[in-house]
């Protein structure tokens, strides 16, 4: 136990050290929210990967594979495909367009500048949607932190929750976007190593892969059948998770923060390599966990990575591996807290309440808002029975359906206008909120709410744009200039 404590303390000291260093590079709100658009390809790549995958990668995905078997493989496949398409078709264009659109530093400000909204209502609506869904998303990270500290140090869940929140709050408030980006590079590397080492260790402990798979199949033939107990609706729903990438502000902002558009291909290669290997490691951790713990299945499958790390490794190595779980938790929660803070401060406070606020005032308010959002998220996370996957799934769908169609069409369709943008956000968000209440009807209504939300939002954008006026000449010229620069 002392070894685990020492490793965790050392890890936290490194995190805080990176935050303090980044503090001296943060001079204004642009630096705090976007890092001055200075991220290199590798830092942008691992930042996007680490902030995307979160504790879902080390806790929820191995847990759901252990519980259900390889029929869950469609989810990581859908995510890998969605991430690739996001890098391929969105990253470079968004980096250029957000700079052309009055140097927008948040997604809501990009929407406002892209569509020439003088009222600020589109920016306000976007900020509200971000705040609602990111609160649930951040809560999932706090749940993971509470589970980690509780199972590792034999403390109660709420204490682990408070420790997690405190660590995240300190380095997010101190260093802002640069701290998060630098820490995510370190944490992404740690997560990558952990997801390679743990399944290999289980494999070696059992003896051979064929022995492990035999032990898995002896538990149930379901576990090795990728089509067992699946339906067309179920497979489509798992694939549909990939659509969520197009609308996640904490991932999109990494594209916006790259040093130049030329950095994007390098970042894409690094991120996709990292992601595919990490997803494969997570799937094998859950699958081999079935063999290792047979015939006694775990009471909470989402702790399989944590328990394997503790049982198979020296306490010093186990401490480093468990720190990877904390890394996954913190990388996403911190990015979401900052994105939520920017939505409140830049897109509401600065826009409507204090348009002439000083730089120092904006930085102070940003840090206060981070604290307030964290407290609300902790209240959601107080129940340890909350499923990490369920919390992530709801928030992922809400952001993906609300913003994904607007991001894609705003980058590729010249005719899209302000009315279409409003329609897309409203229809996408409402569909995700209402859809779960219709699932009792069965059939088509059992689809993951992201897919119908995304489709309905696309239709709403096209119909509303075509039924209203063409964008003004300034907006059309800005679109043309962006294409020329690309």
Overview features:
mainly alpha; globular; single chain; Sodium/glucose cotransporter; 486 residues
Strand content: under 5%
Q: Would you report the number of β strands?
A: 0
Distance between the termini: 55 Å
Mean pLDDT: 85
The major pleated sheet works out as: none
- What is the helical fraction, as a range of percent? over 70%
Description:
- It is a single chain.
- This protein has helices at 2-23, 29-34, 41-68, 74-100, 107-115, 121-153, 157-206, 209-219, 232-240, 249-256, 264-293, 304-312, 315-353, 359-381, 388-412, 418-434, 450-466, 473-485.
- It has a single domain (2-389), classed as Up-down Bundle (Sodium/glucose cotransporter).
- The chain is globular and about 70 Å long.
- It is mostly helical.
- It is built from 18 helices and no strands.
- The mean pLDDT is 85.
In a few lines, what is going on in this structure?
This protein is mainly α and 486 residues long.
Helix-strand blueprint:
Blueprint lengths: L1 H22 L5 H6 L6 H28 L5 H27 L6 H9 L5 H33 L3 H50 L2 H11 L12 H9 L8 H8 L7 H30 L10 H9 L2 H39 L5 H23 L6 H25 L5 H17 L15 H17 L6 H13 L1
Helix pairs in contact: 1-7, 1-13, 3-6, 3-7, 3-10, 3-11, 3-13, 4-9, 4-11, 4-18, 5-6, 6-7, 6-13, 6-14, 6-15, 6-16, 7-11, 7-12, 7-13, 7-14, 8-11, 12-13, 13-14, 15-16, 15-17, 16-17
